[in-house]
């Protein structure tokens, strides 16, 4: 076992594999004198495990053994014995090669402005390794370096290493533990094939891309001076870069590309890559409003879709709509890609490519970036890798001091957490940009992992065109004013090489300007969109349509209930789970009423049986945070899992449920993206506790609640947010119901508080069967999951439907004798009903409002027909007065009570915190609010 553990440790260590030639001589020096090596290496070697303490380790390496064997063979063959000094030099040559692989990027020419001064690296100087003078004319074995023959003159080798690792591309990949991935990158960077020249036709395409990028910005600057456009100028290479990326993706089998980016350069991408008509953009600048009924959004938030012709066929492009929250669009893009892959039934292919475009300060500063990196290889969220491009203009808003924007050398260092290769490239060298883009895509397609391209450029104007950048970056902008544009830089280079004439450069400029004047599409690869695999037509134009059938026969429900309780013989369940399933089977057979978990699971069974797909993610979703769901059964004998809902019938819909990564913001954004690309079926995000949605508030505010108004994007995402006051303290009591109600307008979402198992059954089915797609926010229960009173009959599931409001159900309450009507939602109903029963109160009716938005005016008014004589109405809630539904929904309550009636509040007093932290205080408060709601003052 000890040898196996040592072998596993050694194989995973960064001291092994391709790095051996560099590390072993250092380790030999350490064995002779620990103080002879750098302190960082001494710490690493000190921590190496000791295999046999009783035997001191000897100084020897495989490389020396190799040369010893070579010398012996040479001697036997009559040749000359190798020179020990030359052998030592050979080791130093291999160290030099590895030094360039590790740190060559620090000497690369990456900054177009020449302002970025990186620390000089001694290890990249041959003299650091004792290589100098005559050594440069000697032939050395170059080991795994793939620049040509097995041996090279040292002088030629150094030139080759500089050309590979220290020119316009700086490659960081030696942090990757996979030897296969490192060697793959080395073969692409170091081989002679890596520098094959581009054809004149290709170079003209690159020049056309740079001309388009610059031409649009200058045109907009002249036509709409001072208007915000978040210019791409300085990072113009992004346009030929994206086009080259899409072309290569199409050649490699991609059928769809989904792009996410913030403001910088977005208008340029819309026009020069996706093919949006320039006339439409000019109209937006001129303030002409489209015919859409919604609020609309600023032009640099808009999305777009088109088809793009490649050698591999047309590729569908989609640029995701994006609010002002910078990096938040990244998980949205990945969710959309996952939905498209699932729909194609090819999750492990390269058919759908995600591209995310970042800002240099944002990628390092926004936490959602770390969350999406962490999700990249997780089961629920993997999409086969993402090509991540950083438009690195070296300025964060108005901050150009690196010490103020991050704590790392590069803004892309965050990618190392998932061992993504990172390619830094000088944006003024468009050919290097295209080469590294092709390399990045091929890596992504080969290894299904994320890859980063750091496009190092500059920002010719301020943060926006009305900003004055010299105020905070005087030296940088003095340099920028004198610096030629990327288009001019490349055109001058081609003319100097005699590959193009000035007349051709002028012709390209003039033709692009004429296209802009015409107001049409300027992308020659643009093609009219063909019909795609998702169709939103059935879900358009429906506003809370009730024409759907949610009924199911009891026989069918019993059959499906038995199927969802089946699991293989020998699949040993944990004792508590086994009891849940035994009880669930009794419920299905009608021997007892159904609890929450049984009804919820039965809703899923009916939907997949009808061919609908279901996707559920959340922390502990498989079992349920409160131990109620258990749709994933864990074998206690071998830890295998079985999901009965995957085995309902052979033609059923897909059922997927995942315990997600410990994230709210990125996961919720991911699921939003998923549902915007997949209208059919049920997609659920479940918070472990309702207050966890606090960490995803930006997604709720800027996507869920307003996406339809701003962008016309429909979304049927369901949020299950555990909510209820049960003495668990301030954080785990409230899902902040009031925040959702504050966001409600224009029928943008549904906010429901179901109080019975049958209600959750019909609510989930309604979300799928009703031909309308809007978010569903559910204040889901905790204690009600096992409350004996919170049960439903099979008949209520079979013949019922979701009730937006529930009338008084106690047959002993005579409407004519009612003097007070209490309205409430959620768990507090059961506290009110129990106290009323104990106190034998007969003159108070309790009405449950199960859907708080859209408020069910007609339904409640129908119920209140029995209480037109009542003048005393109360809204009772568990939440403090400044929270919950009281302030946000009070205007709805007034519209449904009889004319002349009064309405008052019963509940906790206003509070800065959602709940108290002491159980005794909680109980006293709860009892007080229940008594207040039920007790009629005889003096009033």
From TrEMBL:
Keywords recorded for this protein, A-Z: Oxidoreductase, Thiamine pyrophosphate
Domain of life where this protein originates: Bacteria
Regions crossing the membrane: none
Database matches in SUPFAM superfamilies: Thiamin diphosphate-binding fold (THDP-binding)
Domain Transketolase-like pyrimidine-binding: 594-787
GO molecular function terms listed in the Swiss-Prot or TrEMBL record: oxoglutarate dehydrogenase (succinyl-transferring) activity
Enzyme Commission number(s) of this protein: 1.2.4.2
InterPro entries tied to this protein: 2-oxogl_dehyd_N, 2oxoglutarate_DH_E1, DH_E1, KGD_C_sf, ODO-1/KGD_C, THDP-binding, Transketolase-like_Pyr-bd
Cofactor: thiamine diphosphate
Stated family: Belongs to the alpha-ketoglutarate dehydrogenase family.
Known role: E1 component of the 2-oxoglutarate dehydrogenase (OGDH) complex which catalyzes the decarboxylation of 2-oxoglutarate, the first step in the conversion of 2-oxoglutarate to succinyl-CoA and CO(2).
Protein name as annotated: oxoglutarate dehydrogenase (succinyl-transferring)
Record organism: Corallincola platygyrae
Highest classification ranks of the organism: Bacteria, Pseudomonadati, Pseudomonadota, Gammaproteobacteria, Alteromonadales
């Amino acid at each position: 076992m000890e040898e196996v553990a040592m072998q596993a440790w050694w194989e995973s260590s960064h001291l092994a594999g391709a790095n051996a030639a560099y590390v072993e001589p250092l380790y030999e020096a350490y064995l002779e004198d620990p103080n002879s090596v750098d302190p960082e290496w001494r710490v690493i070697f000190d921590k190496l495990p000791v295999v046999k303490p009783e035997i001191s380790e000897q100084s020897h390496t495989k490389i020396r053994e190799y040369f010893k064997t070579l010398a012996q063979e040479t001697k036997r063959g009559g040749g000359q014995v190798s020179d020990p000094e030359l052998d030592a030099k050979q080791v130093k040559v291999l160290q030099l090669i590895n030094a360039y692989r590790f740190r060559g990027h620090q000497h690369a020419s990456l900054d177009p402005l020449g302002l970025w001064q990186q620390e000089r690296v001694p290890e990249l100087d041959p003299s650091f390794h004792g290589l100098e003078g005559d050594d440069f004319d000697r032939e050395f074995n170059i080991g795994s370096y793939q620049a040509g023959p097995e041996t090279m003159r040292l002088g030629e080798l150094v030139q080759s290493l500089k050309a590979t690792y220290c020119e316009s591309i700086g490659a960081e990949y030696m942090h990757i533990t996979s030897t296969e991935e490192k060697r793959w990158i080395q073969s692409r960077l170091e081989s002679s094939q890596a520098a094959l020249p581009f054809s004149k036709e290709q170079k003209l395409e690159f020049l056309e891309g740079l001309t388009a990028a610059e031409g649009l910005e200058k045109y907009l600057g002249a036509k709409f001076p001072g208007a915000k456009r978040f210019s791409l100028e300085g990072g113009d290479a992004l346009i030929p870069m994206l086009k080259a990326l899409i072309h290569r993706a199409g050649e490699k089998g991609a059928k769809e590309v989904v792009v996410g980016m913030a403001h910088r350069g977005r208008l340029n991408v819309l026009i020069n890559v996706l093919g949006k008509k320039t006339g439409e953009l000019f109209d937006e600048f001129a303030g002409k409003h489209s015919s859409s009924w919604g609020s609309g959004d600023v032009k640099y938030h808009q999305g777009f879709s088109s088809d793009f012709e490649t050698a591999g066929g047309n590729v569908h492009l989609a640029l995701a709509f994006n609010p002002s929250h910078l990096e938040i669009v990244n998980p949205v893009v990945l969710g959309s890609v996952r939905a498209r892959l699932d729909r194609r039934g090819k999750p492990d292919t390269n058919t759908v490519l995600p591209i995310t475009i970042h800002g240099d300060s944002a990628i390092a500063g926004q936490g959602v970036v770390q969350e999406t990196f962490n999700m990249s290889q997780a089961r629920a969220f993997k999409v086969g890798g993402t090509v991540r491009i950083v438009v690195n203009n070296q300025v964060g808003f108005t901050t150009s001091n690196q010490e103020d924007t991050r704590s790392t050398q590069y803004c892309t260092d965050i990618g190392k957490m998932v061992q993504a290769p990172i390619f830094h490239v000088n944006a003024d060298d468009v050919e290097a940009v295209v080469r590294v883009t092709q390399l990045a895509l091929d890596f992504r397609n080969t290894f299904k992992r994320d890859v980063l391209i750091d496009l190092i450029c500059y920002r010719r104007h301020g943060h926006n065109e009305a900003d004055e950048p010299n105020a905070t970056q005087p030296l940088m902008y003095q340099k920028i004013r004198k610096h030629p544009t990327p288009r001019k830089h490349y055109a001058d280079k081609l003319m100097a090489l005699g590959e193009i004439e000035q007349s051709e450069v002028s012709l390209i400029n003039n033709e692009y300007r004429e296209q802009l004047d015409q107001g049409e599409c300027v992308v020659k690869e643009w093609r009219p969109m063909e019909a795609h695999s998702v169709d939103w037509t059935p879900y358009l134009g429906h506003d809370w349509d009730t024409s759907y059938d949610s009924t199911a026969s009891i026989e069918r429900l019993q059959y499906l209930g038995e199927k969802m309780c089946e699991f293989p013989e020998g699949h040993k369940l944990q004792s508590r789970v086994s009891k849940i399933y035994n009880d669930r089977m009794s419920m299905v057979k009608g021997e007892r009423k159904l609890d929450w978990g049984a009804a919820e699971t039965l809703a899923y069974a009916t939907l997949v049986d009808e061919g609908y797909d279901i996707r559920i993610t959340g922390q502990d979703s498989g079992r349920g945070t409160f131990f109620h769901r258990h749709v994933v059964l864990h074998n206690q004998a071998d830890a295998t899992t079985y999901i009965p809902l995957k085995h309902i019938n052979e033609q059923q819909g897909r059922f997927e449920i995942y315990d997600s990564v410990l994230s709210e913001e990125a996961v919720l954004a991911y699921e939003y993206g998923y549902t915007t690309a997949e209208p059919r079926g049920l997609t659920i995000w479940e918070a472990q506790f309702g207050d966890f949605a606090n960490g995803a508030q930006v997604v709720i505010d800027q996507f869920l609640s307003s996406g339809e108004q701003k962008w016309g994007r429909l979304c049927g995402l369901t949020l299950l947010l555990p909510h209820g006051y049960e003495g668990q303290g301030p954080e785990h009591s409230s899902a902040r119901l009031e925040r959702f109600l504050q966001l409600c307008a224009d029928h943008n979402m549904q906010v429901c508080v179901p109080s019975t198992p049958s209600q959750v059954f019909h609510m989930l089915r309604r979300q799928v069967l009703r031909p309308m797609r809007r978010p569903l926010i559910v204040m889901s229960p905790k204690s009600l999951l096992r409350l004996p009173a919170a049960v439903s009959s099979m008949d209520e599931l079979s013949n019922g439907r979701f009730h937006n409001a529930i009338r008084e159900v106690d047959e002993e309450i005579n409407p004519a004798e009612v003097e007070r009507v209490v309205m409430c939602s959620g768990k507090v109903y059961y506290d009110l009903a129990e106290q009323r029963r104990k106190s034998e109160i007969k003159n108070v009716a309790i009405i449950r409002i199960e859907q708080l938005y859209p408020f069910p005016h007609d339904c409640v008014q129908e119920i209140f027909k029995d209480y037109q004589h009542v003048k005393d109405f109360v809204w009772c809630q568990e939440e403090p007065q400044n929270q919950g539904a009281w302030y946000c929904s009070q205007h709805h309550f007034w519209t449904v009570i009889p004319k002349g009636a009064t309405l008052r509040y019963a509940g906790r007093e206003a509070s800065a915190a959602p709940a108290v932290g002491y159980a005794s205080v909680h109980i006293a408060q709860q009892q007080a609010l229940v008594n207040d709601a039920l007790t009629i003052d005889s003096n009033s």
